[in-house]
Amino acid sequence: MQKEQAYDRPHRHHYDAEMLDVEEALERILTFFKPLSAEDVPLLEALGQVLAEPLVAPINIPPLDNSAMDGYAVRAADVAGADGGSPVGLRVIGHIPAGTVSDQTVEPGTALRIMTGAPVPEGADTVIAFEDTDEVERRDSGASMDAVYVRLAAEIGENIRPAAEDVLIGDTVLEAGTVLRASELGVAASLSLRSLPVIRRPVVAVLATGDELLEPGEAHEPAKIYNSNNYSVAASVSALGGIPRVIGVARDTESSVEEALARAMDSDMVITTAGVSKGDYDFVKDVLAKRGEIALWSVRMRPAKPLAFGALDAPDGRRVPHLGLPGNPVSALVAFEQFARPAMRKMMGKDMAPRPTVQAILDDPVTNFDGRRVYARVVVYRENGVYRARTTGNQSSGVLTSMARANGLAICPDDRARLSAGETATVQMLDWPEDVF
Fold first, then answer.
1. Alpha-carbon distance 190 to 227, whole Å?
2. Among 114, 249, 281, 300, which is least packed, fewest CB within 10 Å?
3. What gap in Å lies between CA 346 and CA 35, rounded to an integer?
């Protein structure tokens, strides 16, 4: 089946090595995208996805008046004067398990033993909890269970959950656009639904480029490095609810890049790492220009200054958006956070809510030596009720462990040369650790 375009067709234009701020780059990227089509998926597979249509209740929940606890279904008038000193005796005429509709009627002076969730029988208008009767003493003493003494008066309707208390047939229970959590899936299951119409998950092709790359597990060679970008980017796609398709590694030849991109065309977005700067062997930009259109940008941020974005012409006539991330592993992840994450959320029909931020006092300075917005890798922690942040060591864009140790990105604005230790910084939280928040 032919997939729909993930984005609106842009005017043909070419942003040639423009210097953009982060917001402008993101705005241009997001104009290319729109929500994907809907599909029916089993309930558990719908977790985290967006409901594509309103969910209208086909039944009442609960379907009948039912008991809110284990006890006795009685007439409130029969126990009006009951108390601990003067209990009221009733004849027990039967038992109603959960899931069973009784054909017996509670007449004056009688009671039906009833379990939580069981429909309230005809004639009864209240339920008395076991602990407000002498049931336990009777059972322990071996007395007959054909009678019970009630020690507490009750109002009409007490301990009864009325029919349709939760959901009324015909009501819109969940609006289109709802992000489905465990509770929403439980609601759908309670309505006897086995699947839901949701905006489908985007398929994102992930491609690393470079002659220097080895796959994990291959024998080490001098001057080679192991390919981490495919794994960190693909994992980021998966964490957001997308479906990563790892294409592999394209070597530094046009034919290798061409062949790899051809295998990526059955996707909703292509993410490449490296190959889009001004190096002699950065062939990705040349192949992209042949297959569609590409914009090469310098974004006013550090790490992740070089960025490419464009559209690839697929054989089926679709135009597949392409995001070219820098090759340095930290740069790739920081750029993914700022640009790929919002694009994926838009494809999935979610709002553009950014990562949550906190205001944290810096333990270490953050230096901005070239007028770009700095995203410093930090660990946020709480001390004496105040958020604090310490950097994770070497902030080079090639030091991936600086990202692995971080739970947030401390932002130094492009118009500040330095944030000193003791100053308060805005921190974009990558995680929301339970021991901190």
1. 46
2. 281
3. 6
Residue 8, pLDDT score: 45
User: Which residues touch 305 (CB under 8 Å, ≥6 apart)?
Assistant: 298, 299, 326, 331, 372
The 10s digit of each residue's pLDDT in 317-331 is 999 999 999 999 999
User: What are 23-52's pLDDT values in tens digits?
Assistant: 999 999 999 999 999 999 999 999 999 999
Strand partners, 412: 374
Question: Interhelix angle for 254-263 vs 284-291, to 10°?
Answer: 50
In angstroms, the Cα distances linking 385 to 69, 161, 436 are 42, 43, 10
Neighbours of 133 (CB within 10 A): 26
Please give the model's pTM, rounded to 2 decimal places: 0.88
H or E segment to which residue 263 belongs: helix 254-263
Look at residue 1 and tell me whether its pLDDT is greater than 50.
Answer: no
Contact 414, 300 (CB under 8 A): yes
User: Measured between alpha carbons, how far is 129 from 18 in angstroms, rounded to an integer?
Assistant: 74
Residue pointed to by tokens 């294409």: 247
Would you place residue 280 in the very low, low, confident or very high pLDDT band (cuts 50, 70, 90)? low
DSSP letter for each residue of 396-435: -TT-THHHHT-SEEEEE-TT-SEE-TTSEEEEEES---TT
Backbone angles phi, psi at 354, to 5 degrees: -75, 175
The amino acid occupying position 78 is: D
Is the four-CA dihedral 83, 97, 65, 91 of positive or negative sign? negative
Contact 371/435 with Cβ under 8 angstroms? no
Measured CA distances, 437 to 256, 364, 428 (Å): 47, 21, 14
Beta carbons of 296 and 285 less than 8 angstroms apart:
yes
The region, left, alpha or beta by phi > 0 then psi within -120 to 50, assigned to residue 217 is left
Q: pLDDT tens digit string along 196-255?
A: 999 999 999 999 999 999 999 999 999 999 999 999 999 999 999 999 999 999 998 889
The answer to whether 1 and 22 have CB atoms below 8 angstroms apart is no
